[in-house]
Write a structure and sequence with these properties.
Layout (H helix, E strand, L loop, with lengths): L11 E5 L5 H16 L6 H9 L1 E5 L8 H8 L6 E4 L7 H10 L7 E6 L6 H14 L5 E4 L6 H11 L13 E9 L8 H26 L8 H14 L9 E7 L7 H4 L10 E6 L11 E6 L6 E8 L18 E7 L3 E9 L8 E9 H5 L1 H4 L4 H11 L8 H20 L5 E4 L6 H8 L10
Helix pairs in contact: 4-5, 5-13, 7-8, 7-13, 8-13
Bound molecules: 6-O-phosphono-beta-D-glucopyranose.
Catalytic activity: D-glucose 6-phosphate + NADP(+) = 6-phospho-D-glucono-1,5-lactone + NADPH + H(+)
Enzyme class: oxidoreductase
InterPro entries: G6P_DH, G6P_DH_AS, G6P_DH_C, G6P_DH_NAD-bd, NAD(P)-bd_dom_sf
Amino acid sequence: MLGGQALQGSRIIAAARRELDADGFRHMAEAALRNHAGPGKLDPDQLAVFLAMLDYVRIDAEGEGGWASLCDRLEGSERMRAFYLSVAPQLFGPISERLATSGCRTPDTRLVVEKPLGRDLESAQALNRQLATLFEERQIYRIDHYLGKETVQNLMALRFANALFEPIWNARHVDHVQITVAERVGVGGRGAYYDRNGAIRDMMQNHLLQLLCLIAMEPPAHFEPDAVRDEKLKVLRSLKPLDGLGDVVRGQYRGINGEAGYCEDAENPGSRTESFVAIKAEIANWRWNGAPFYLRTGKRLRARMSEIAVVFKDAPHSIFPESAGGTRPNVLAIRLQPDEGITLRLTIKEPGPGGMRLCEAPLDMTFAETMGAEGLSMPDAYERLVMDVIRGDQTLFMRGDEVEAAWRWIDPIIAAAEAAPERPQSYDSYSSGPEDALMLMHRDGRRWRAVA
Ligand code: BG6
């Protein structure tokens, strides 16, 4: 369970509108934990220690009610305070204001917020401005839970702790990069939220662009929050603005075998919201000019799979006879989920006496196998990020200017999509997405890796 020693003497105070007391909240939390862990999986002593940390205060986010008693509960705690706002984004401002005026905020208070951080550049700027009047940037933790995923952090280790990759990590050697975040689930019970946002706002503006940054950024001088975030920001600012939808494909899933399609799930029959988007992005700088980044994400696709694939250029010349079969470009695939791991695709000689015949073989590393039990018990992304809030480490959190730079690139894409006369292209549920997404690659003589 939660980080042992580090949390000793800590308290978790839930504050919400619901009529509840501390015992009622503890019961809720216990039931949720049992349900999550499965029968017999919780250590009763640890559980008791954890539940004893919990408290509850009834609070009115927009009114006066409850704030004084929240402050009373915090009284005497000289230690760091973290406020995690798990609320609708329009309440970020009012709640921050109350935290400041009611006296709950101390110099070592940390504020945690999560997307949607605005719905365009203007609203993101307004939110940043508002938070900046109440908190210093060093106190604001903007979560992108993809940055908390173990393999995503490993990406930085892979790039910056191994001398092997850096010399070939550029457009001279890399043909292109593919980033796929495919989900099997549809929009389910989140139809109303999703229909207002769509895949571009929900996934592309944040998770996929953050992954792109980690692949594309220059080595930071230190593994230290602002050094890392400065480099990510430079990448976002180097993205070539897209003109129209020529490099963008939007899709919407249709139901198969009697199952509901997107519009039924979203309860909006004529919805034009995309549940899939693919974009060819280009980074205008010395390292990446000429090596595009193809990004795609969607719901109700064939499999749940998140992967970054760095596809290298083919061998410049083949010394083997045609009968050997051609060489295939090397691919470094970083699998974020499921089966977290890293694979390097190589061309080797087919084993056996049949002469020189070439074939593909993977050099494979899965965390579960390589790290044994530790690989299997990797912390959940949120677990890791909450611990970082407590430790005061902002490296894996987005800075305000990063969020704005991402919106600055995304805004014209959304504007073009909203102005487009055509609807997103339909694709079958559990397929690999709309036809046009395949074309986005084919027309460049490339192909997507399988969603599997
Ligand atoms: C969230 C999106 O940020 O990420 C969801 O709002 C999406 O629509 C989810 O399903 C995917 O996260 P994960 O960790 O399951 O890949």
